[in-house]
Amino acid sequence: MTIAASATELRTSMKEEREATGPPPTRKAFADFHIHTRFSRDSILTEETFIRKAIERGLTHVAVTNHNNVEGAIAVREKVAELGVGDQLTVILGEEVSTADGEVVGVFLTKTIPRGLSANETADEIHRQGGLVSIPHPFDPFRGSHIKEGPLRNLAEVGKIDMLEVFNCRVTFQRHNLEAAEFANRYGIPGIAASDSHSGFEVAMAFNALPTFESADELKAILPQNNWHASRSTVFIHATTRWAVWKNMFDAWRGRRTATGPILGPQAPEQVRREPVQRPTGAELPPKEKADE
Ligand SMILES: [Zn+2]
Predict the structure, then answer these.
(1) Of 77, 120, 163, 183, which residue is least crowded by CB atoms under 10 Å?
(2) Domain interval for residue 10
(3) For residue range 42-74, what is the model confidence (pLDDT) as tens digits?
(4) The domain that contains 30 carries what CATH number?
(5) Residue 249 Cα, ligand 1 centroid: separation in angstroms?
(6) Cβ-Cβ contacts under 8 Å for 159 (sequence gap 6 or more)
(7) Taking the model in full, what pTM does it have?
């Protein structure tokens, strides 16, 4: 685990490490499990820009985790296929779900999980889809959307957390990342670093160096070997997120087609609770047998 002095230094070290593993497809994975694109209303990052920067900077695996939809991840995966760079970048379908208890990330999903379920129900649905549960920035008080401590502890106690962000580049004060690391350590949960990119500038500000993997089960098995590296975003990075929200709203108002149009952005848990929650019907959910294999 290292924390680089700057993003440039981090990317240089990733490039060197990656070049040492040989040409793609590499035997080693350089993965980021928390990335937003224009399918989040606080981001305007296009699929193409994201893919170009991710490959240029040495990432091999990315979980695209837009707020409350996997469609954004599907769009990145389709663009990768269209550009013919599938041997260089593996796209994992993910979602950062606004649960009634705060945000929970699912990776290796097959379909969108509706927002507003409890953290526990959301974790169960992620596992039912064959995915892994990741907890984003759990102790960052500057984001009202982080998971509440009670539900977090409950999930940890019943072993429903597969990985936890012990370093999120957007966390303002390091002690909150440290708190996350201590929590993960206490419960024996593998820690990961996440860029939580919302703009091109932030792509590859963190990476997890792992033996290469293809499925959720394989990733789960190798996560304890994770060696993560990260650098920090400046506090000002949050200004770009606010700007993206306004730009997306303005474009929608002008009648421009934006990817975020039909999609609800990050909501405070209070807001989620006040609004009617549409739960998936039994028919919409994958068959139960698939749950525990
Ligand atoms: Zn996020």
Answers:
(1) 120
(2) 2-274
(3) 888 999 999 999 999 999 999 999 999 999 999
(4) 3.20.20.140
(5) 19
(6) none
(7) 0.80
